Amino acid sequence: MSSIFITALIAENVILNKFLGICSFLGTSNKEKNALSMGICTSFVVLSSTLLTYLINKYILIPTDSTYLQTITFILVIASFVQVNELIMKRYFKDIYKSLGIYLPLITTNCAVFGIILTNIKMNYNLLESMINSLGSTLGFVLVLYIFSLLREKLETNNIIKSFKGIPIALITAGIMALIFARI
Amino acid sequence: MIGVILFTLMSFIISILLVFLNNFLEKNEKEEEILKALPGYNCGSCGFGSCSGMKDALLKDKNVISKCKFVKNKEEIMKIIENL
């Protein structure tokens, strides 16, 4: 149980080891607050769709022998949860909704979300195990996003060579972080 | 084949639920806007007890706004109700 959690959290981190969800990783990590709210939104989507996709897969798709519909069904579930998330954010957290902008509906196409859910199905986890795997993966996602946003905020005030400013130095930082995570 | 039918059914159910959620949240937001535009004294002289009672009555019939003795921005409230 705990080995699944630790593996998902650090050894097979979604961003730095599987290289999933790089788009939102680079896009929303420019500010600490943005990174945290993006992480929380993604966690909500991943956890709720893990529960629903597990139930749908076990009680609808496998009994009716139609596992070829897995991909499209999972995308449907993820997209609807993203919509729910977006509606709630729009109603109750308007400033975060505005500062995240296009990246909020783009959780739908965030491959980290789909990747975690597919891993759960491929590894034949039961409900508890898949919830733990999703929890560990999303915590890893939030952790890396948060550390990276702190580093980027620090980098912005530092004196960097002009040609390395912005995205290039962020990519180099991400590479070094991946090296560190691979050796933990 | 049965899987495809079930998938279609699922998407229908999910879309209907999303529409309901959206309508509910939007109505909720409008109600809050009306409450903000009302004077907020909760004096009860309109006969509905408080400003939130007035708001519920306004959603049914917008002419009851004339019962409020303190409201100054009638046009603004009318606009919010008409956009509902």
Notes on the structure:
The complex is a heterodimer of chains A (184) and B (84). Chain A is an all-alpha fold and 184 residues long. Chain A has one domain (2-183). Chain A has eight helices and no strands. Chain A has helices at residues 2-11, 22-27, 32-61, 70-92, 94-100, 111-122, 127-157, 167-183. In chain A, helix 3 (32-61) packs antiparallel against helix 7 (127-157). The radius of gyration of chain A is 17 Å and the shape is globular. Chain A starts with a helix and ends with a helix. The model of chain A has no long low-confidence stretch (mean pLDDT 89). With 84 residues, chain B is mainly α. Chain B has a single domain, classed as 3-methyladenine DNA Glycosylase II, Chain A, domain 3 (Orthogonal Bundle), CATH 1.10.15. In chain B, helix 1 (2-37) runs antiparallel to helix 3. Chain B is rod-shaped. The relative contact order of chain B is 0.13.
What is the secondary structure topology, with strand pairs?
The complex is a heterodimer of chains A (184) and B (84).
Chain A: H1 2-11, H2 22-27, H3 32-61, H4 70-92, H5 94-100, H6 111-122, H7 127-157, H8 167-183
Chain B: H1 2-37, H2 51-60, H3 74-82
Helix pairs in contact in B: 1-3
Helix count from the secondary structure assignment of chain A: 8
Sheet-strand content of chain A, in percent, reads: under 5%
The radius of gyration of chain B is 19 Å
DSSP, total strands of chain B: 0
Reported for the largest beta sheet of chain A, the result is:
none
Structural class of chain B: mainly alpha
| Average pLDDT, all residues of chain A | 89
CATH class of chain B: Mainly Alpha
Q: Helix segment count of chain B?
A: 3
Quaternary structure type: heterodimer
The CATH level-2 architecture of chain B is identified as: Orthogonal Bundle
What's the SSE pattern of chain A? HHHHHHHH
Radius of gyration of chain A (Å): 17 Å
Spans of chain A of at least 5 consecutive residues whose pLDDT stays below 50 are none
Characterize the biggest β-sheet of chain B. Answer: none
Give me the secondary-structure category of chain A. Answer: mainly alpha
Encode the helix/strand succession of chain B as letters. Answer: HHH
| Beta-strand content estimate of chain B | under 5%
Mean pLDDT across the residues of chain B is: 83
